[in-house]
Design goal:
With 285 residues, the protein is an alpha/beta fold. The protein has a single domain, classed as ATP synthase, F1 complex, gamma subunit (Pyruvate Kinase, Chain: A, domain 1, 3-Layer(aba) Sandwich), CATH 3.40.1380. Helices cover 58% and strands 14% of the residues. The protein contains six helices and five strands. The protein has a five-stranded mixed sheet with strand order 3-2-1-4-5, sandwiched between helices. Strand 2, helix 4 and strand 3 form a beta-alpha-beta unit. The longest helix is centred in the last third of the chain and has 75 residues. It is elongated and about 110 Å long. The model has no long low-confidence stretch (mean pLDDT 86).
Length: 285
């Protein structure tokens, strides 16, 4: 009973810490959205000015007859005790590998749990990033480093990478997280900004041609997508850990109640046996 009570104390403390960090993680996810919207607005305006602009990050490579090669960037946690968070992501990655059996897939593993799992499997690991999400505070510099590495892999003529995918847990609520696979590269078609009746199209004056602005913003867009995915992953991890620790605390309370009942029954049986022995001895005398 003392051991279970100590475990319950630990799980309650972990739940409280995760709940406090979850609120801040949610605020960071919400705060990052206006930046993304504004970037897409500027990219849409640049696309309107340069409709014939082509870039490998935007349109991909033209490699007819070559075997397709894909990179899957998997974002997992560096720590456990977070329910099915890591398990669901690893299952989704295995499902992706199964669905792309005819394609050469290489993994970029972000998080220790994904790396510990796949390093023992016959899967090609391109590189790993450990400790990025472990502290719960995502740095834009870390996201930029990961994104620039993926961009370099995609643009390299030696590696001939055709597509780059990002797999992470999308944060819905503390009770709901959903593994999502999204294509990171090529970016694809940027929608031209549409003007509603209540809005007027602002004619921006750029210091550089739209093609130059487009070339500068595309890598920033990829970096922002990776940064947003890491923020979503951290919030999902904290929500899953809070839920798991709450369930563990409740289970520990149930175990304590059962052990208390067993202890009382054993004590009662012992007292009854001692009384019987005393009565039997008295009758024998």
């Amino acid at each position: 009973m003392r051991a279970v009570k100590n475990m319950r104390q630990i799980t309650k403390a972990m739940k409280m810490v995760a709940a406090a960090r979850l609120r801040r993680a949610q605020e960071r996810v919400v705060a990052a959205r206006p930046y993304t919207r504004k970037m897409m607005q500027i990219l849409g305006d640049a696309a309107r000015r340069a409709p014939d602009y082509k870039d490998p990050l935007l349109t991909g490579h033209d490699r007819e007859g070559a075997d397709e090669r894909v990179i899957l960037a998997l974002v997992t946690a560096d720590k456990g005790l977070c329910g099915g968070f890591n398990t669901n992501l690893i299952k989704a990655a295995q499902e992706f590998l199964k669905n792309n059996a005819g394609v050469e897939v290489e993994l970029v593993l972000i998080g220790r749990k994904g790396y510990d799992f796949f390093r023992r499997r016959p899967v090609k690991i391109r590189r790993e990033h450990i400790g990025v999400t472990g502290t719960g505070k995502i740095k834009a510099s870390d996201a930029g480093l990961i994104a620039r590495g993926l961009i370099a892999d995609f643009k390299s003529e030696d590696d001939r990478i055709d597509r780059v995918y990002l797999l992470y847990n999308e944060f819905k609520s503390a009770l709901s997280q959903r593994p999502i696979v999204e294509q990171l590269l090529p970016v694809g078609h940027i929608e031209v900004a549409e003007v509603t009746q209540a809005e007027t199209l602002v004619d921006y004056i750029y210091e550089q041609p739209a093609e130059v602005i487009f070339g500068e913003l595309l890598p920033k867009l990829v970096e922002n997508q990776v940064y947003h995915a890491l923020l979503e992953s951290v919030a999902s991890e904290l929500g899953s850990r809070m839920t798991a620790m709450d369930s563990a605390s409740k289970n520990a309370s149930e175990v304590i109640d059962k052990l208390t009942l067993v202890m009382n029954r054993v004590r009662q049986a012992k007292i009854t046996r001692e009384i019987i022995e005393v009565v039997s001895g008295a009758e024998a005398l």
